[in-house]
Design a protein that fits this description.
alpha/beta, D-Maltodextrin-Binding Protein, domain 2, 2 domains, seven-stranded mixed β-sheet, two-stranded parallel sheet, 8 helices
């Protein structure tokens, strides 16, 4: 075994177990499999990394990205899958993206709002999942609209419906699925941001050796087509794979 691989194992899987954070709040990236275990592109990448290191993947699952970030302080995970954000970057090293998705809005069918920029107005209330990438982005970007936070991304849609808010912000795919399954809702064209989903290493373990190895691993997985295949096999659009 190379000195580099030994150093990575010591940092990320010192007891032979790679502790991996999986966020079920983003269904593009992670789903619960029929056996109850994590499925989707994030889980596929985690298992591939564990296999390459010769260790076992041990999953810590969360309902929202905000919970994943908070759990850093408890040393609950060493490798995660999160959207790049400057607030999170204070405690996380992010790789290049492996998936790029759009943040947009779900609105009532009869809403007069048609364009993304129209939502940043006084009196407009928007439901978001607390701590999600688009919550962090909109907190910085919006100057007039009000964000109403729910515990998770899924709960944000429920909050939007129950309180008859102007919109729910989120990842395009789950919002579009919600609108397709129910009458009376639509998703706006366009996006308020592109969300880069990356592998994440906690800063406490992010030595130059570790980050170089993880960056190289992800690059190889993208070039091999694993990311696109994992997206397609989990029912997602493979064109969301980052180049």
């Amino acid at each position: 075994m190379s000195d580099e691989k030994s150093a990575v194992i010591e940092a990320l899987a010192p007891k032979g177990r790679l502790r991996v954070a999986i966020n079920y709040g983003n269904t593009v990236l992670a789903q619960r499999g029929e056996d109850g275990e994590p499925a989707g592109v994030s889980a596929v990448l985690a298992r591939a990394l564990a296999a390459e290191l010769g260790v076992e993947a041990e999953f810590a699952t969360f309902d929202g990205a905000g919970d994943v970030f908070t759990a850093i302080d408890d040393d609950a995970w060493r490798i995660g899958f999160l959207a790049r954000d400057p607030v999170r970057a204070e405690k996380i090293h992010f790789t290049a993206p492996y998936v790029i998705i759009e943040g947009t809005y779900l609105v009532p069918e009869e809403s007069p709002l048609r364009e993304i920029d129209e939502l940043d107005r006084d009196g407009v209330r928007i439901a978001v999942g607390k701590g999600a990438a688009y919550d962090l982005y909109l907190t910085r970007a919006l100057t007039n609209a009000t964000l109403v936070r729910a515990a998770t991304s899924a709960a944000a849609i429920e909050l939007f419906v129950e309180q008859r808010l102007a919109a729910a912000a989120g990842v395009r795919q789950p919002l579009a699925s919600y609108a397709a399954e129910r009458l009376g809702y639509r998703v706006l064209d366009g996006r308020f941001t592109s969300i880069e989903q990356c592998m994440a290493v906690t800063k406490a373990q992010a030595s130059d050796t570790v980050t170089r190895y993880i960056e190289n691993f992800l690059d190889r997985m993208k070039q091999s087509g694993l990311v696109k295949r994992a997206l397609a096999e989990s029912g997602q659009d493979e064109t969301q794979a980052a180049p």
